[in-house]
Design a protein that fits this description.
By secondary structure, the protein is of the alpha+beta class. The protein contains 12 helices and 43 strands. The termini are far apart.
């Protein structure tokens, strides 16, 4: 009995000791707020020799990059042939000269620009400071202002501040003719002559030709152009309550098409210049477009092509129109039972004047490259293949028949989101990896592809940058290796990468975990999830950063996490298709399992107190957590949410929710489901949000009031598409402290906020 009593006593003492830190370490205190507020300033500039992207100089083997140094930044110039690395210029001399010329005070490590351009045969550098372009001699270091920078504009668009008026005519390649638009129709005249004649007769206010769409055939014998039938011009309205330049409110509006709207439709038209006539074009293959895009003539003028995206985004075609007959065929026909990701996974490259085409597709369940026969429209071969995804194409080398591309997920067991670089022959042979470190990579190639700069890192691996030779992939020079010794001494710790199985029990779901710097594993921590489940990408950080805003939030006494669930991009097509007509899903079944797996491993991870926040699509997701998963999520802060996908921009929402509008839109709507609210909710909206209609949030407010639900609302006067700036972030932090920690935040009206 004494032995049992002794064991029981030891257990009791152990329990008391474990409980002791909970009593000693308060959360959400003023000290925590101070630590969170100062985190950025305390960590900024403590990672030295951290390089930015490299910029190759014209067609040379020289490049520059900007790196961090103690107290600021410096520019570095590298010669790949001579394997030399040196300062790009005398930073102190340039700073002194620029200070004098600009009437400011700069030092060699605090120069007020991030990029440079070598000019005057490399005898000078140019850079932008504010609205002014400067040039400094590298011999005398005299600096002179080049005046305001010209702003680029698109041909045919309205003139910018430094632009010119749109062209009135579009000349033929041989210079003999000029095309122009009059009374909504297409006209032609011999260059310089007064006589003119119409090519079209079907133009009107509601169905017109526009000069920017006019494309001459290379032989000057034909013209292709779009005739635009106007749709419904939906307008959203804004009242700026507190403008900075006047007392009274301001009214403004903007065009903003929404799902289901009747939209502008561009239809291709073909004209014979010599015959002065229109050649009919059969539109059966593109009768219901969301968009017809990019008229391109083949160099031999035999035909032109355009890309057709059918309304609903399930069909995407490359259409070819014969220049003599107007007959139409689909060279590439892409069809999907869900969606073709035209906004993120569309790539086309024409070889040999269209005799072959490199095309990107997810038709085998993964995003890959295919080689088409442009004459027959048949697939010659699949260039890339396997349970991994192509992330982008850097170059197609026609002469050597090689594709240089980026991809993810090629290495089993490794993070499937890490970007690696490769090359492969057009016939699908010779796959060669250009990067090898287990990290996220960014590569910049020399113009001739003989050298490349490979920069890589992970959230827990400081940045490394190296110069490699493309022929043998050998590292010929290590450029930089970030030094984070001072950062670590300041208390920095990397987030933990965590992996758990998703809803199917097979697929790995990846995320990161941020803990407070004063973390105590003997203490229970409420959890906050940062969510953005937009299907257009993946969002968990993969690269090294000295500071992350999630770490600041964690300092208040939380564990803060971010995870990519099913329905987001950059994995398999099946992974992505979960979002189809189902944005309300937002990957929550995967997210909850991921949280539960962490809690099973770490007892301090308290999933009885889980909060969530997000902006835009993340605003929709964070409110959706309380509506559809209140048994798990207890507190939400939702800013500028697209709460009903019928209220948001057309291209994004029809891409994922489909067309026509159906009951699935209501099923995912936070407005239609507002009556289900449980838990604590803070809504934030900017009255001048031009990205997501602010009425989307106010309709949620209306539905919540009708359902007699209690919530908090913060409207930011003049605010845009964000969380409300520093004040909004403070309100968010206070909301979580109060409702997840059960602690009253500091009285900011009594204690001045200096954030």
């Amino acid at each position: 009995m004494m032995k049992i009593a002794h064991v029981a006593a030891r257990i009791l003492i152990a329990i008391l000791l474990l409980a002791l830190p909970v009593q000693l370490l308060a959360q959400g205190t003023a000290a925590d707020y101070e630590r969170a507020k100062n985190l950025r300033s305390q960590t900024q500039g403590l990672a030295y020799n951290n390089p930015g992207p490299s910029t190759w100089i014209d067609k040379t083997h020289r490049f520059w990059y900007r790196k961090t140094v103690k107290g600021g930044h410096q520019f570095v110039l590298v010669n790949a042939d001579q394997l030399t690395k040196e300062p790009a210029f005398d930073h102190d001399k340039l700073a002194a000269s620029l200070s004098k010329a600009a009437g400011e005070s700069y030092t060699g490590i605090t120069l007020p620009f991030n990029s440079i351009t070598f000019a005057e045969n490399d005898s000078a550098v140019e850079f932008q400071v504010g609205e002014t372009r400067w040039q400094c001699s590298l011999a005398s270091y005299a600096c002179r202002s080049l005046g305001p920078s010209e702003r680029p504009r698109r041909e045919g668009g309205p003139p910018g501040p430094m632009g010119q008026a749109p062209p009135l005519f579009k000349a033929s390649p041989d210079g003999k003719y000029e095309a122009f638009v009059r009374n909504y129709n297409l006209f032609l005249r011999v260059k310089g002559a007064k006589e003119e004649f119409p090519l079209s007769h079907d133009g009107s206010e509601g169905e017109y030709y526009s000069l920017p769409s006019v494309q001459w055939s290379p032989d000057s014998g034909k013209i292709a152009a779009f005739r635009t039938r106007t749709g419904y011009k939906r307008v959203i309205h804004f009242i700026e309550s507190s403008p900075t330049d006047q007392l009274q409110p301001k009214y403004s509006n903007r065009e903003y098409a929404k799902p289901g709207d009747v939209i502008d439709v561009n239809m291709p038209a073909l004209f014979d210049v010599a015959g002065r006539k229109q050649i009919p074009v059969d539109n059966r293959l593109f009768a219901n477009p969301y968009a017809n895009l990019q008229i391109r003539w083949w160099k031999d003028s035999r035909a032109f092509t355009f890309e057709h995206n059918q309304r609903g985004h399930k069909v995407f075609r490359i259409i070819e129109v014969d220049a003599r007959s107007g007959s139409v065929r689909a060279i590439v026909n892409e069809e999907s039972p869900t969606f073709f990701n035209y906004s993120g996974k569309r790539y086309r490259y024409d070889l040999g004047d269209g005799k072959e085409i490199v095309w990107m597709s997810e038709r085998d369940g993964w995003n890959h490259l295919y080689l088409y026969d442009g004459t027959s429209g048949a697939v010659k071969n699949q260039i890339t293949k396997g349970p991994w995804v192509v992330r982008g194409v850097d170059k197609v080398d026609e002469e050597n028949r090689v594709v240089w591309f980026r991809a993810s997920g090629m290495y089993p067991g490794k993070d499937p989101y890490f970007v690696h670089y490769y090359r492969i022959n057009l016939d699908g042979t010779g796959l060669t990896a250009l990067t090898d470190a287990d990290a996220n990579h960014a590569v910049q190639y020399s113009d001739d592809m003989q050298f490349y700069v490979n920069t890589y890192s992970r959230v827990d691996l400081p940045t490394v940058s190296e110069l490699r030779r493309a022929s043998d992939r050998k590292v010929v020079m290590e450029l930089e290796r970030a030094d984070i010794q001072d950062l670590v001494q300041a208390g920095w710790k990397p987030p933990e990468v965590f992996v758990a199985k998703g809803r199917d029990g097979v697929t790995d779901i990846w995320g990161v975990i941020f803990r407070p710097r004063n973390f105590n594993p003997a203490q229970k921590y409420a959890v906050i999830e940062n969510i953005y489940a937009g299907p257009q990408g993946s969002f968990v950080p993969k690269s090294f950063s000295p500071y992350n805003s999630m770490q600041s939030l964690a300092e208040l006494g939380f564990i803060v996490v971010q995870v990519d669930g099913m329905g987001t991009s950059n994995r398999s097509k099946a992974f992505h298709d979960v979002c189809w007509q189902n944005l309300g899903d937002a990957g929550f079944p995967d997210r909850k399992l991921w949280h539960q797996a962490i809690a099973a491993k770490y007892p301090y991870y308290d999933i009885t107190r889980v909060g969530i926040y997000g902006n835009s699509a993340g605003g929709q997701n964070s409110l959706g957590a309380l509506l559809f998963h209140p048994e798990f999520y207890k507190v939400a802060v939702s800013s500028c949410g697209c709460h009903d996908n019928r209220m948001d921009k057309i291209w994004w929402n029809e891409q994922w929710m489909g067309y026509p509008i159906g009951p699935h839109y209501a099923a995912s709507s936070n407005v239609d489901n507002a009556h289900k609210l449980q838990g604590r909710l803070l809504l934030i909206v900017g009255e001048m949000d031009t990205n997501v209609d602010p009425a989307s949030t106010m309709q949620v407010v209306n539905a919540l009031i009708k359902a007699k639900k209690y919530f908090d609302l913060l409207v930011i006067p003049g605010g845009g598409h964000g969380m409300g700036g520093e004040y909004g972030e403070l309100k968010r932090n206070d909301f979580f402290v109060k409702h997840l920690l059960g602690v009253n935040p500091p009285d900011w009206n009594r204690n001045a906020v200096s954030q």
